[in-house]
Design brief:
The chain has 133 residues and is an alpha+beta fold. It has 2 helices and 10 strands; from the N terminus they run αβββββββαβββ.
Length: 133
C-alpha cells in the first residue's frame, strides 16, 4: 500500500512539473502597477516574460532573470532570486526598480483575470498588476 502511495505521489509531481510549460502565466507581461501605484514613464518599460519555469524581464532600469515555481493546481507562484544587471538611472526609475524587486520577492499568489494578472502576497494584498503584451 505504501509503495502505491509513493508511486502516485511521484506521478503527481511529474505531472505538476510538466504542466508548468503550458501554464497560463507563460508569456510576456507589461507591469502596469506596483503596490497600487501606476507605473509612470521610466528609462525602460518594466516587464516580465515567463516561460518553462524561468522568468526574465526589465525592472525599469536593469534586466533580471531567474527561476519561477508555479503550482499548476492552485494559484501559488514563487519567483526565485536570480541575476540582475547593475546599471543606474534617474531617481524615479531607480525607485520604481526598488519597488519592483521588493514586490517580486514577496509574491506568493496570483489571480488571472483574462489578460490581467494580479501578483499577491500571503495576505492577498496585490503587489503588482500585469497586463499581457
Amino acid at each position: 500500500m505504501k509503495s502505491i502511495k509513493t508511486l502516485l505521489a511521484a506521478l503527481f509531481c511529474v505531472f505538476a512539473l510538466s504542466s508548468c510549460s503550458n501554464h497560463k502565466l507563460n508569456g510576456e507581461w507589461k507591469v502596469v502597477e506596483i503596490n497600487g501605484i501606476a507605473v509612470g514613464e521610466t528609462l525602460n518599460e518594466p516587464f516580465l516574460n515567463i516561460a518553462d519555469g524561468k522568468y526574465n524581464g526589465n525592472t525599469s532600469v536593469n534586466y533580471i532573470n531567474g527561476e519561477v515555481k508555479i503550482c499548476p493546481f492552485g494559484c501559488s507562484v514563487e519567483f526565485e532570486d536570480g541575476a540582475c544587471t547593475r546599471m543606474a538611472a534617474d531617481p524615479y526609475s531607480m525607485e520604481m526598480e526598488h519597488s519592483f524587486l521588493e514586490a517580486l520577492d514577496d509574491v506568493e499568489k496570483f489571480t488571472l483575470e483574462g489578460d490581467v494578472v494580479l501578483l499577491k502576497d500571503e495576505h492577498d494584498i496585490v503587489l503588482m498588476k500585469l497586463a499581457r503584451k
